[in-house]
Specification:
Order of helices and strands: HEEEHEEEEHEHHEE
Distance between the termini: 41 Å
Number of domains: 2
Structural class: alpha+beta
CATH superfamily of the largest domain: Winged helix-like DNA-binding domain superfamily/Winged helix DNA-binding domain
Strand order of the largest sheet: 4-5-6-7
Shape: elongated
Helix content: 25-40%
CATH architecture of the largest domain: Orthogonal Bundle
Radius of gyration: 20 Å
CATH class of the largest domain: Mainly Alpha
Length: 168
Amino acid sequence: MITIFLKLSDDCVKDTLKKLFRDFSVSVVNDASVADFILSDDSDKFVLNNIHYFYKPLNFFSLIDVIKSSSFYYIGNAKFFSNRKCIINGDDKITLTNIENAILLQLLKAKDKGVSALSLVEVIFKKNTESNLKSLSTHIYNLKKKLEVVVGKNKNIVSVNSMYKLDF
């Protein structure tokens, strides 16, 4: 078993790392076969998955940025990369607008509970107006059409009791 001991003098960094490990469900494992990311030592640098190189001393925030940029959500068989604003299913790749990306992210976070149109308007447009509600409907319509291409289901976002939900 490998044990890693960290001594941090900066309370702000300590709190941030605690939050990152707690919020992003990061854990250290002992077996490479169950690891999602492998960080290895290569003399003057660290290597993540034989792709990304970090020079010593390791900047944890750069490491977290790389991990976040390669993370994705599954939507059926497709992968949604929120940081890259795209959905990929095999050879099909759909690029999302900033607003479509934000809507899909909110719907994925809400899971089966759904999100009200007013909540979406508040989060995405920061201001609740009638024109923003109409604009939201247009963006959801466009997002549904894009999802239909990569997921293959035309009723992928449903509205139930004024709540939008994903249905896959």
